[in-house]
């Protein structure tokens, strides 16, 4: 067990926020879990499990133990001519898994290319992009219950997946360590090009009959053209969820703002584009000292140079307030606030 006391968390969060943790423990092997949990229990301190740190904003020092989940491994559970079942350790980098699947011609993950973070965070957040959510691929999430060290597996249904959410973010928050995730992928691609941006990118590339690699490369190209690289500019990707409203609200907004993007997600439910709402309020590209809103994507808040987490959090509050005042819609933060 590798333990570091009074350690900077700047290398462990993609916002690049300067803060400290009382202790950081690296979990590198599954055989270490029992020892690590015993130690944490003895210390009687608050625990934070961290993967890639790509969906968290630290607003203060963390007076507790940060557990870095670095468990690695990809294993084929079963395979036939149509499907393949994989179990993937929580510490695997998500995009590396996507590239592995594309190389093996396992279809399903291609639309989720270049999403930052690790595999263990994927069910927690129910990550999604370009018409695909990870819940459509997960069969089981394998965990260790922190209270007693028991192994507990959750079926897809038991995870209660929702838009950018699951039980691991709500009712079961901070109660389980995700060890691995089981996925079902396909030998015969079921390509999803329903988002116009993908179709336009394929047309630009002159591709009329795409394969999963083509879809992945199109998604990567789109993301790189709109989103800042966390290695160069601190950010956590989309900071806000796209709000979901009832049909009455959607119709009111369409009447007042004829060009407002809306997406049907149910008979009487519509999803709005948070980035569009934020842009209409004048925030896109706005810079305040050493932080602000990205110039190409209003959903992304950025740390240009050692801004504090509190400064970025306060900026997000101002954005939420302005969108509510203009549109009567309340945005919800997607990023976890610590």
Number of strands: 20
**Average pLDDT, all residues:** 95
Helix fraction bin:
25-40%
Q: Per the principal axes of the C-alpha atoms, what is the gross shape?
A: globular
The profile of the biggest β sheet is: 5 strands, antiparallel
Give the amount of beta strand, in percent: 25-35%
Any idea what the radius of gyration is? 20 Å
Q: Strand order across the biggest sheet? A: 6-7-12-10-11
**CATH topology of the largest domain, which one?**
Uridine Diphospho-n-acetylenolpyruvylglucosamine Reductase, domain 3
Structural category is alpha+beta
Task: Please mark out the parts with pLDDT under 50 across 5 or more consecutive residues, or reply none.
Answer: none
SSE topology:
Layout: E1 2-8, E2 20-27, H1 33-43, E3 46-50, E4 56-57, E5 62-69, E6 74-79, E7 83-89, H2 94-103, H3 121-125, E8 128-129, E9 132-133, E10 138-145, E11 151-155, E12 176-186, H4 196-204, H5 212-226, E13 234-238, E14 244-246, H6 247-256, E15 262-266, E16 269-272, H7 274-280, E17 287-288, E18 291-293, E19 300-303, H8 309-327, E20 336-337
Parallel strand pairs: 2-5, 3-5, 4-20
Antiparallel strand pairs: 1-2, 6-7, 7-12, 8-9, 10-11, 10-12, 13-19, 14-16, 15-16, 17-18, 18-19
Helix pairs in contact: 4-5
